[in-house]
Amino acid sequence: MSIRCDIYDRKQYDIWFAAAPYAAASKPAKALRQWAAEEGADIVYNLALFNMTGQGSDRYGVIKGRTLQYLKAKGKVCGYGGTAERLSLGSENVVSGWKLAIKDGKVNGSLGKSDRRSRNMCGLLTDGRYIHVQTSASHTELEVAQYVRDHYDVKLLLVQDAGGSTGMYRVSDGYLFAPEKEGTNGRPVCSVVCIKRKNKTTTPKEENKMSKKVFIGVGHGGSDSGAVGYIVEKEANLAVALACRDYLVTHGVEVRMSRTKDEEDPINEEVRECNAYNPDLAIDVHNNSGGGDGFEAYYTIHGGTGKVLAQNIEKQVIKIGQNSRGCKTRQGQRGDYYAFVRDTKCPAVICEGVFVDTKADAAQAGTKAKQQAFGIAYAKGILDTLGIKYDTSTAKPAEPVTDAETQAAIIKVQQAVGLSDKTMQYLLDYEYGVELIHKLAAAVK
Predict the structure, then answer these.
(1) Which of 82, 226, 337, 341 is packed most tightly, with the most Cβ within 10 A?
(2) Does the model's pTM come out above 0.85?
(3) How many whole angstroms separate alpha carbon 439 and alpha carbon 444?
(4) Sign of the CA dihedral with 91 first, then 105, 154, and 99 last
């Protein structure tokens, strides 16, 4: 799943909420880049529950009463909404109108199960660190909450919004994460989460030098479809590459892709862009054809870091259930046969995920979720090679729960109608099941 979970230790980072007041003289929506500049933040996230029409009491774009009112930072209170409320981020303060995603490690069973958008959530881990969750692909609220619960120990996670309210801007390299953005600097919003590293002793330029850089070539594109079988190679390549990029960025790696949409992408241009970017590592994302089965990776005949990278990626691909044909080299008249391995200046690997013309093998990457799993596996192999740690915890069993009010309604309905626990669970799993249970409970005398 293409879900980014950015985690910040509050001992190392200042974290605050900034927002425009209702009493502002003009509509206070600002692009993420502008918010970052005005607040002096290193990173900003779109926090807004946003109303584009700006009518009535929401004329400034903030939906009143549905966002955290303030968080103290740098000796000042950032708040809005025209109220005297002062609420901080904690499990005891779930703001009216907000939807609870996770509390004390338990997923809210009434989360949406059908509406698919990019998603935006934030909260706290049990160790006190702040977590901000955003998705680059379309997911339901429940899918995102379950993913976060399965990978982290969560004390509180609150649903922000979806669609255009999903966005992040990083000042150091101008990176914008905005799956459904409006404008080159991010959608204009009225409230943001601001992140700034404490006691920063390096300049942004020095900080950039210390960052690891990765180039991702995305095979084929435009009029070149690549291999076509049970899946279309150029489409699968892009989905894999985007997921790989997002996972790397989540872990502080700078990434450049040869393409981020369906467009012409010749190999000589990929190599030129890669060398101009001067990354630490590079991969070229492809899928195979010819009736075979399994993953394979190609690295330089000279071995070295390229071989290590190929082997690390192979290990991660095997973990997601795909078999491997091995890590290989191929000799040509000019040395390495493949231009992406031969002509790039950094260690580079070509990844061939599945055979698109073998039905069973193509099924390993036959959905967007499976393609994203390949991308994350590639990213983990890259992080292993760079020596960057990532979360390796195993998934926990699903345990969606209901709140006390809903639980009381369930008992009331069961006693009145005589529904079995199994039948009641079917009802809870239905998208509007919780709402229906409350209506039934209200009708019961």
Answers:
(1) 341
(2) no
(3) 9
(4) negative
